[in-house]
Amino acid sequence: MLCGRTNVNKFLVEEQRRNPALIGDVSMLISDVVRSCKAIGQGVSRGSLAGVLGDEGSRNVQGEVQKKLDVLANQAFLHHCEWGGHLRAMASEEMEDIHPIPAEHPRGNYLLVFDPLDGSSNIDVNLSVGSIFSVLRCPDHASAQPPTAADFLQCGSRQVAAGYAIYGPSTMLVLTVGNGTHGFTLNRDIGEFLLTHPDLAISPDTREFAINASNERFWEPPVQRYVAECLQGKSGVRGKDFNMRWVASMVAEVHRILMRGGVFMYPRDSKDLSKPGRLRLLYEANPMAMIVVQAGGQASTGDERILDVQPTSLHQRVPVILGSRNEVERIERYHREHASGEDQPFRSPLFSTRTLFRDD
Ligand code: AFP
């Protein structure tokens, strides 16, 4: 049936043998997550035929219009993951508060936080969307008390596992349990995700960047500098031409970067100073950062590594710059040079305004 290929369960058993710290609970929990993603992928692939496109007529805690599939995807995670006895609680982009495991089910020692349908603004135009998840251990002190949102506020470096499903031309699962990043492709004939991309590795350099260029006037200067240099191409300081992509679905951007390198940026911008970024730390930035770093890339806010950020609230947003290591580190350097004033434009009555980089 598997034609010698490894499915997710076999992969996890082999991982447990290699890494005894990865206990069976995590493997069983990931299997429940996989079932959630299969169910969501089924709904996404049927689209209009299933009557699941369009708006739900409600807004989520972020104030964003909920798509019907946002709500159905959230319900799929709750339905498949709450009964297994591995979790104490779940949290989601689509729920304002945490979802404690109901009393009728046994409670476990892990927390699951997820974006059930990332990129959902693309769902009605048939572009790739995905589900993102992150697994945390319950804090020791929390074991005897009811779970709270504070239990989820752990640095990304404490994640036990992270992954995403991407519902595209093929449905794939990308997973890390702390020992590399690995890709599985759904074989619809047997309903199994089969290992097709073991040990994914992001090239340290790239000629491709992804950013929503319509926000250029709002970006912080280090990002304006980086993108301006990319656009100058061969004639500029980079000495090479760049390509640009923007899918408006983080899962699709990260997947492309895992496959062929690149850098993805959703930086801090001045469009809404109350928000330090668009993307959410716990269920977008952190899991994607673990996946990227485990594949040899890097993930930063520009000022600090994403996995080091200490969360302060469940739906906290952060700036995100991730992908090919050398590009992320260059952008971090530009942030330091901006903070120190090294990149500030200097003005001289003799030479009018000059800058380190051309502004024409
Ligand atoms: P939606 O899930 O609301 O479509 O948002 C997707 C997302 O969080 C992330 O996946 C994209 O990279 C980013 O937003 C797209 O943002 P813009 O709509 O500003 O391009």
Automatic annotation (TrEMBL):
It is an enzyme of class 3 (hydrolase). One of its GO terms (cellular component) is cytosol. Belongs to the FBPase class 1 family. It is found in: Cytoplasm. Pfam families: FBPase, FBPase_C. Residues 336-360 are annotated as: Disordered. The gene is fbp_2. Residues 203-335 form the Fructose-1-6-bisphosphatase class 1 C-terminal domain. SUPFAM superfamilies: Carbohydrate phosphatase (SSF56655). Residues 336-345 have a biased composition (Basic and acidic residues). Pathway: Carbohydrate biosynthesis; Calvin cycle. Its cofactor is Mg(2+). Homotetramer. GO terms for molecular function: fructose 1,6-bisphosphate 1-phosphatase activity; magnesium ion binding. This is Fructose-1,6-bisphosphatase class 1. NCBIfam families: PRK09293.1-1, PRK09293.1-3, PRK09293.1-4.
